[in-house]
């Protein structure tokens, strides 16, 4: 059976607008409670850093107007979630993770969708007939920091396909493709069958892509699995796992790779297998 592949129709405007709509639905309410002293402090310091760059580098009116026009385009292309999650989120996550002893986390990125289908502890992620790529068996155990299994821990997993596209953000992919909610068994074990994702290119046809090409950077993230791992009474972790030998592991546009997050898969008949365990801190 042939697959309705997305690449020719995926655009920055489409995935940007979808990411903006998704953020408005799921997350924007959390932003309301910041106290005024904190807003004032942070706004002042960020603006002071901008003023310093203007003075230090003698920014011209042409450059200022180029910035203004670019910022307007980031909004028009719906790319604020993409911009922030690529160039800012990693610092926020580093601060958030400073006080945890368990598994490392990293950025969530713009493509998480809650309430993916529940697949039990021995899961096959939803995929198209003939889904491209290398079959991957991803398995492990969820424990507390003392090594006690966390029975019933819940893992949400989502990742790009073998062309680097995410369901619900790139067009032409079934709604829950390569997304699922997995519940660990009574020993904290889980196993997930999926297809290894490809490196991901942040959309190059929108404002973020313009910044990348104007600056002479590259738009790539290494191939990665996204996960959220939770258990009652424990801190949820949001993380990503990477594959050894990926040429973007040392050079991720989103700066989100940590050595602890690189998997150690081995080849088996018909694909690859990898074990990775998660350790959660108490609330
Ligand atoms: C972006 C995309 C990702 O898949 C990711 O993990 C992080 C950031 C982005 O396009 O902003
Ligand atoms: Fe991603």
Automatic annotation (TrEMBL):
Belongs to the intradiol ring-cleavage dioxygenase family. GO terms for molecular function: catechol 1,2-dioxygenase activity; ferric iron binding. Gene3D superfamilies: Aromatic compound dioxygenase (2.60.130.10), Catechol 1,2-dioxygenase multimerisation domain-like (6.10.10.40). This is Catechol 1,2-dioxygenase. It comes from the Bacteria. Keywords: Dioxygenase, Iron, Metal-binding, Oxidoreductase. The keyword Ion transport does not apply. GO terms for biological process: catechol-containing compound metabolic process. NCBIfam families: catachol_actin. Residues 138-166 form the Intradiol ring-cleavage dioxygenases domain. PANTHER family: DIOXYGENASE, PUTATIVE (AFU_ORTHOLOGUE AFUA_2G02910)-RELATED, INTRADIOL RING-CLEAVAGE DIOXYGENASES DOMAIN-CONTAINING PROTEIN-RELATED. The keyword Translocase does not apply. It comes from Rhodococcoides trifolii. Its cofactor is Fe(3+).
